[in-house]
Prior knowledge:
Pfam family, one: TctA
Radius of gyration: 22 Å
Number of helices: 24
Low-confidence stretches: 499-505
Order of helices and strands: HHHHHHHHEEHHHHHHHHHHHHHHHH
Helix content: over 70%
Protein name: Tripartite tricarboxylate transporter permease
Shape: globular
Distance between the termini: 49 Å
Transmembrane segments: 20-40, 52-71, 109-132, 138-159, 166-183, 203-221, 260-282, 318-337, 357-381, 393-425, 432-449, 472-492
Mean pLDDT: 78
Keywords: Membrane, Transmembrane, Transmembrane helix
Domain DUF112: 20-441
Strand order of the largest sheet: 1-2
Oligomer: single chain
Amino acid sequence: MEFLSHLELGFAAAMSLTNLGYALLGCLLGTLIGVLPGLGPVATLAMLLPSTYALPPATGLIMLAGIYYGAQYGGSTTAILINLPGESSSVVTALDGHALTKRNQAGRALAVAAIGSFFAGCVGTLLLAAFSPQLVKVAFYFGPAEYFSLMCLGMIGSVALSSGDLLKALAMIIFGMTLGLVGSDVNTGVVRYSFGFLELEDGIDFTVVAMALFGFGEIIWNLQTRDQQAATPPPRVAKLRLSWQMLRESFPAMFRGSMLGSLLGILPGGGAVLASFAAYTFEKKMPLAEGEIPLGKGNLRGVAGPESANNAGAQTSFIPMLTLGLPATPTMALMIAALSIHDIQPGPQMLTTHGDLFWTLVASMWIGNLFLLVLNFPLINIWVKLLTIPYKWIFPAIVLFCTVGIYSIASSSFSVWLLAGFIFFGYAARRLGFEGAPLLLGFILGSQMEEYLRRALTLSGGQWDVLWQRPISATLLAGSLLLLCTICLGSVRRKRAEIFVEDAE
């Protein structure tokens, strides 16, 4: 009954005209940036962070969340129609989705993607509402040592689940942690790594790093490749039609994808991308029915499974962020930044001190998923027309928006120059095969790890054995060590390389 009363209060707040309007705006923007290849939710959220200063906390978070899960819907459109995924989580959707388009069945593929996304979004939101309060009860047993060990596990998990070279991912995490230490030490007041710049004494703004790596860096990179890819005219979709028989055949894949995505969305470094790839791999291992088309040749299961998984993963990635204050993905790190703008610290205390915000967000996710289902069916041909816009026309508007946003945060030209430096670094890193996501996670978790470690040492009188004398902390550290040893095994590294090479293709 308490659960239902909380949901009732959440829906009452989420259905105010202001929150409904921003939920709709977030869903529309999310679908738009999902449809347009090369933008992505991380870049968009980084650009829109300054706008949340003027919004109430719940309203701002509702809009940003709508952009995130809306992008998962939109990413499948280009993947199915022109074999160009708008989102990295929709890469595997293109395999069967575009094959269906070649057989003049694009409407069926888009319908399965939309229905699967809606079902998975509802399942993921239900799990978020049901399990977050239970996880908070467990988190109250956590002290500084346990949080430090949990963050160690999260760091190693993000390295294991990142694509590309393990050493490069590890290097980016360490560099991100170092950047997070720039500024004044909160305990001693000593200024670290400022190199004489007064503007760095308060640290590097998270928005600058996120916008440079995932805003400008990704956009400049995409300028090299997108224009020639977009030359293929997208087909017009006549009707999104799906028979009951096809829906019944696709539903088991939707259910499996939703369950798998809900689980993997909680893992550090996982989220929607890992969930979609895992769901497709799982579907490939399922036996084919008599006369069923193989996956990769135009099977609806190859669309239903991954699309359900990435939407469920997008929803459940909020669980560790809201209950433990740990971002599972770079997008969740931006959500933490949005909350910190309003002096709200996500974690176990959030459900008690800001319970209204939590339940309003949960309710808005159900409303947002309904918006996306209703909007995407009639507007599909409008999204298709947007694919004809040359990417080079979008770039100047994004540059102006980002630069003004960064300047408005600090009212300092130094922030703009710092942004330029990180843009150059982000582009160079991308050219050399370094991912930006591990750096962003290291940046936001590094300072928190230092704080929890110092608290643990203060409470124990400087005794390092506090980290392995406490059972929960020792278990988490053992898990970190086991995971690190596992990913260093030659057989695991070879299998991991095979998976990511297959994903890239």
